[in-house]
Amino acid sequence: MNNASTSLWKLTVAQLRDQVSSVDPTPGGGSVSIVAATLGVASIRKAVLVSLKRSSAVPAKHQSLVELSSTASALMTSLSGLADADSRAVADYLEASARPRTTESDKTLRRAAREVGLVRATKIPLEAAEVMGRGLDAAEAAARIVDAHVRSEVLTGEILLRASIKSLLLTVDANLPGISDAASRDALELQRRELEIAFVPPC
Prior knowledge:
- With 203 residues, this protein is an all-alpha fold.
- It is built from six helices and no strands.
């Protein structure tokens, strides 16, 4: 049974697969995309760590790899937290949607809670996409200096990051029409367009 308060990272791979494929609302597409991106960064870091083993003879390369390893580790931590935050945001929005609608006061409170929940459920994917963009920068830097036999790990990570950004923008697109405050909606839509321009190559 799904429980958004339980970290996705405490599940086995089989449990995560089964939860995603169930009728439970979380983890949904946003969280799945962030998990995929986290694994993409992990793949990049693998290539960096393997390359570090034989880099001591070239101090400049060694230092660059050390810095990339640290960057990748920080990105993994950020994305891991955002995957859980996304699931919690969706759960909070659904909880707000389930609030009573008996009186006009109930309806007003429900609308306000839904608005807050939906805005948060839109901001988190955008924040995650920005972090993934930094992951793409790390991938570009890593591809230039990792050993040739592990460069495919970096390229795999890059592909996962780009796909994850694109899929997160789909989540944002699904949420935006439901946000009633025009200023909030426009600001989020602008942020979404900027991310698409920066990180999603035109077809």
